[in-house]
Specification:
Distance between the termini of chain C: 48 Å
Number of helices of chain B: 4
Helix content of chain B: over 70%
Chains: A mainly alpha (159), B mainly alpha (93), C mainly alpha (107)
Radius of gyration of chain B: 17 Å
Distance between the termini of chain B: 59 Å
Number of strands of chain C: 1
Number of domains of chain B: 1
Oligomer: heterotrimer
Shape of chain C: elongated
Number of strands of chain B: 0
Largest sheet of chain B: none
Strand content of chain C: under 5%
Largest interface: B-C, 44 and 48 residues
Radius of gyration of chain C: 18 Å
Helix content of chain C: over 70%
Number of domains of chain C: 1
């Protein structure tokens, strides 16, 4: 029930922020109807739970995202310079690592973070093993160091 | 001026994506190029909205981002299973 | 005035990264490497351009929409990329690699 209430709050906030109107009864009414409909359908689909609405994550994400953005910028610059060099210094490789997260949400965040960082792409997930295509030795070493894995596990918290 | 240059750069990028979409060689190269073309379209819509002073274009961009994602997944499913139906049902029949 | 300069710098940097990604997708040798090229335009190219535009927003609703587009792109693009790479792998396309190594990250 708390998840349903949270969903209502989030959907209402999205509607208000995207429309930008707070004093038009018609628009507010349509918004209320839309929110009710979406919550009803979500409840019927049984997707309103800790996975559909991971309320435990934002606190950890606040600390994780700035680090991730810095990593993304560093990786972008590195890959961009390699693409521009005439001799194209890439050494593609495939590596497998273990994802230390306990929940699926945590593993999704980890796999997506890896893909979001240029130079490494998650090409397969199987249980708690992730197969990664890395463009360079350095990019592969970055994943193998396991720092991102630890940080995502920390985001997950004790749930 | 700056924004016009950015618009030009985005169009150049879209052109490069089209080059890859044309060359292939695999269907996945083409889908990758298509996906990139789509995300660049979102940026183009946003930038043109600011160039013409009509930021309401952003609503279109937002919608385009959603549809592009769903479209890429749909094309992927199609290229993988040959139809848009449930893959598990397809395999057993 | 300062906002405009910050915005211009970000937008131009984003445009440069977008074009580099475009060059990458044409230049890189095999499908799995080209994904990294597309990754550049989708992450930093899109991120810098949209962040740059935020500084030009006439009012806050525009900023909210730019943030929404950015969040949406940064969530959907790795998902689409992964679906694409995984589909390619399952179809039998193999990455052109120098070496394959098995490893377990310390966790």
């Amino acid at each position: 029930m708390t998840y349903a209430a949270g969903l209502v709050a989030i959907l209402a906030a999205v509607w208000l922020l995207l429309s930008g109107y707070f004093d038009k009864p018609l628009l507010l009414g349509l918004g209320a109807v839309s929110v009710a409909l979406v919550v009803f359908i979500s409840l019927r689909m049984r997707i309103v739970d800790d996975e559909g609405l991971p309320v435990q994550l934002p606190a950890g994400l606040v600390r994780y995202l700035p680090w991730l953005v810095v990593e993304i910028v560093k990786a972008n610059v590195d890959v961009a310079l390699r693409i521009l060099r005439p001799d194209l210094p890439i050494r593609p490789r495939v590596i497998r690592v273990r994802a230390g997260q306990r929940t699926d949400v945590g593993r999704v965040i980890y796999a997506n973070s890896i893909t979001l960082t240029p130079g490494t792409v998650t090409i397969d997930t199987e249980g708690d093993h992730i197969t990664i295509h890395a463009l360079t030795e350095e990019a592969a070493a970055g994943v193998l160091s396991g720092e991102m894995d630890r940080r995502v596990t920390r985001v997950e918290g004790r749930g | 001026m700056i924004l016009a240059a950015a618009v030009a750069a985005i169009i150049v990028t879209m052109g490069l994506a089209l080059v890859r979409a044309g060359k292939g060689p695999t269907v996945f190269d083409r889908i990758l190029a298509l996906n990139m073309f789509g995300t660049k379209t979102v940026l183009l819509i946003a930038a043109i909205g600011f160039v013409t002073g009509r930021p309401h274009f952003l609503d279109v961009g937002l919608l385009y981002a959603l549809i592009n994602f769903i479209g890429v997944i749909a094309v992927l499913r199609f290229s993988k299973y040959g139809n848009f139906a449930d893959p598990d049902r397809e395999r057993t029949s | 005035m300062i906002l405009e300069i910050v915005s211009s710098v970000l937008v131009i940097a984003g445009a440069i990264f977008a074009v580099i990604g475009g060059i990458g997708i044409v230049r890189l040798p095999d499908f799995f490497s080209r994904i990294h090229g597309a990754g550049i335009t989708d992450t930093l190219g899109a991120g810098l351009i949209l962040t740059g535009l935020m500084f030009l927003s006439p009012d806050w609703t525009v900023t909210v929409k730019l943030v929404a587009i950015l969040v949406l792109l940064w969530i959907t693009s790795p998902t689409a990329t992964h679906a694409l790479a995984n589909a390619a792998l399952e179809t039998g396309l193999r990455p052109d690699v120098d070496e394959t190594e098995e490893a377990t990250s310390s966790s």
